[in-house]
Design a protein that fits this description.
Layout (H helix, E strand, L loop, with lengths): L2 H21 L7 H13 L15 H22 L9 H6 L1 H23 L6 H11 L29 H16 L1 H12 L7 H33 L7 H4 L4 H16 L3 H14 L5 H29 L9 H22 L14 H9 L5 H13 L5 H33 L5 H4 L1
Helix pairs in contact: 1-2, 1-13, 2-13, 2-17, 3-7, 3-12, 3-13, 3-16, 5-6, 5-7, 5-14, 6-8, 6-16, 6-17, 7-12, 7-15, 8-9, 8-16, 9-11, 9-12, 11-12, 14-15, 14-17, 15-17, 16-17
């Protein structure tokens, strides 16, 4: 393919990414579906006939691109959440109970459900089965924008969906936290493949991978966010108060500093970025600078999502699904239609958000349980684990995860807009389309 045609395709794709959200907003169709389909069409062009995409050979590129995409999305999610998390307030922790239930109940059940299905009836080796469960369990902060909060709501704003929406808050906060919390189970798969029996590594894994790295990641993220927020909003020298200057690149600096510092300290960088974003958001919550930072992150996320989704679509028609078999199809369909919905619904049994409050009703529980969108994070975890240790089933893992992500993109993408509109209408709230 000539360089001129590459520029033409990239330009057309960027234009597509810019107009798609507005064009498909009123239809039962999401921008990710169109981007994946566009990538598939590009892959079918005669110029690519000789190309067979081997995800094993392309693993380093996939790992770094998906890693950056998830990091940017996590920063955006943290800046978008209006509900504060005050460490010393019991009521604040209680208001986040939807997130804790999804993380503490739904996610382990999902990991166990996928891993046991793959390892037991389907005969997948234990390390690969655990990796599959860990990679497919997290919901995605990149592709789930249709069911998440839209951005930081400033005081006096009337054109935003209220952040008290428990459904959108639950799905947004879950997507922000569970990407980092999937890592302990990715490491469990790595240890199974490299060390062997669980009895040889479980104590160290429990103390460090499951607890220590989470604590380090959160503490580093909070510390970086606190320092940068102090500089941006309250620095003694006006030239350092970036909020007054209106320089939104602080959000990118925060993302990179939090991730880098956490990784150097041995913590989970994904959690550090989300914790950093929440901390920055907590400072001067009604300042316009919050919106400016979120807008910069949102633009970068759009660009990176464009690259990933076009690449995913291209890979679908150029070898990604070459090793997909009935086992992979069964796992993907079972996860999207049975395992995640059941785990998500069970997580909210007896749920109360406040004293005397009934919490999520039956309809809302079903929506939260069903819309566990799979996406870019799943691709990253497979790339990360396969880069750390050899998995004989690696190509099958790529095909299975790729199929599951596309299934989720299509099914959830088609249903998200009409379902959320009906839910808003049933609660007597203005829909996103009405606000737009």
């Amino acid at each position: 393919m000539s360089p001129e045609l590459v520029y033409l395709l990239l330009g057309g794709s960027l234009l597509l990414a810019a107009v798609l959200p507005r064009v498909v907003h009123r239809w039962a169709l999401s921008a990710p579906i169109v981007l994946v389909a566009t990538g598939m069409l590009i892959g079918l062009l005669p110029a690519w006939d000789a190309v067979v995409l081997d995800p094993v050979a392309a693993r380093p590129v996939i790992e770094h691109v998906t890693e950056l995409t998830v990091l940017v999305a996590l920063m955006g999610v943290g800046l978008a959440l209006d509900r504060p998390l005050r460490w010393r307030s019991r009521e604040s922790w209680r208001s986040w109970s939807p997130a804790w239930r999804l993380l503490g109940i739904a996610m382990p059940l999902t990991i166990a459900g996928v891993a046991l299905l793959a390892w037991g009836p389907l005969g997948v080796a234990a390390p690969a089965a655990v990796l599959l469960g860990a990679a497919l369990a997290p919901t995605d902060p990149v592709l789930a924008s249709d069911v998440q909060v839209e951005g930081p709501t400033l005081e006096g704003a009337v054109d935003e969906i209220d952040e008290d929406d428990e459904v959108r808050f639950a799905l947004t906060s879950e997507a922000g936290l569970n990407d980092g919390l999937a890592f302990p189970f990715v490491y469990a798969a790595i240890f199974l493949a490299s060390v062997g029996s669980v009895s040889q590594w479980w104590a160290g894994w429990l103390a460090w991978e499951l607890v220590g790295k989470i604590v380090v990641g959160v503490l580093v993220g909070v510390a970086v966010g606190w320092v940068l927020a102090r500089i941006a909003f309250r620095a003694p020298a006006r030239s350092l108060r970036l909020a007054e200057v209106g320089e939104p690149l602080l959000a990118l600096a925060a993302l990179l500093l939090a991730y880098g510092a956490s990784e150097v300290a041995g913590g989970y960088g994904f959690l550090a970025v989300f914790a950093c974003a929440l901390t920055v958001r907590a400072a001067e919550r009604d300042h316009d600078y919050q919106r400016h930072m979120h807008d910069v992150i949102d633009r970068l996320e759009t660009l990176l999502t464009l690259v990933v989704l076009l690449g995913l679509g291209f890979a679908l028609t150029n070898g990604l699904l070459a090793h997909l078999d009935w086992r992979g199809v069964l796992i993907g369909v079972s996860l999207v239609l049975v395992i995640r919905p059941a785990a998500g619904y069970l997580a909210f049994l007896g749920h109360r958000t406040q004293v005397g409050d009934a919490g999520l009703d039956h309809r809302e529980r079903l929506v939260v349980a069903f819309f566990g969108v799979r996406g870019v994070g799943s691709l990253y975890y497979v790339a990360y684990a396969a880069g750390a240790v050899s998995f004989p089933e690696e190509r099958w893992l790529w095909s299975t995860v790729g199929f599951t992500v596309v299934l989720s993109v299509v099914l959830h993408g088609v249903l998200a807009t009409p379902v959320m509109r009906r839910l808003d209408a049933a609660r007597g709230e203005p829909t996103a389309s009405a606000l737009g």
